[in-house]
Amino acid sequence: MSKVPKETKNAEASPGLGVRLEGSAEDGHQLILSSESALKDIFATDCDLQANALIAHCLKVLMGSEAGDAGEANDERGFMLSIVKDIEPRDAVERMLAVQMATTHVALVRQGNRMAYAQHLPQFEAHEKAYNKLARTFTAQVEALRKNRNGGKQTVTVQHVNVEEGGQAIVGNVATGGEGYA
To answer: How far is residue 130's CA from residue 117's CA, in Å, rounded to a whole number?
Structure first.
């Protein structure tokens, strides 16, 4: 289980995020905030408890090599936070979904790497199966986010309509039945 990051206020942080993570999963993460609200701004919440839990959730899924100062090129912590911030969650469901999307993407890339280095066909097939499941999961998460934002409504835009001679085209909402209809 990953340790909850310790916070340091008003220190230099990653540009655009206002947060920088140092340390490692083994030694503990240190969260450096440029302001009191930096972490809450990323997760779009006023609740400290929620913001702290969500960052802990981001860190729990990372392997040691993906969450530490030693391998900066492989450090996924800042990437995950930047993705959550860019999604701009609007409510608690979207906050949790944004974290899931970021973690699913990292796991997807991890599986792609394992697939690339597989030495034997059964090994490759196992990684390919996991990769495909993660890709479908990510697509479902994107769709869930879209539905949550649109209230489940699907919008269809008609670009071109042909009306034959004597025909009629109706533009707008059409209701049938109800009072006054025969």
So the answer is: 15
168 conformational bin, left if phi > 0, alpha if psi -120 to 50, beta if neither: beta
Nearest CA-CA partner of 81 in 50, 28, 144, 38: 38
Q: How many domains does the chain have?
A: 1
Rounded to 5°, the CA angle 2-3-6 comes to 145
Distance of alpha carbon 179 from alpha carbon 36, whole angstroms: 58
Quote the tokens at residue 7: 């916070």
Q: What is the span of the domain harbouring residue 76? A: 6-150
Query: Whose structure tokens read 């006054």?
Result: 180
Residue stretches of the chain with pLDDT short of 50 = 1-2
Please check whether residue 164 lies inside any domain of the structure. no
Question: How big is the CA angle at 82 (ends 84 and 58), to the nearest 5 degrees?
Answer: 60
Tell me: the pLDDT tens digits for 137-181? Answer: 999 999 999 999 998 776 777 777 788 888 777 776 666 666 665
In a domain, 1, yes or no: no
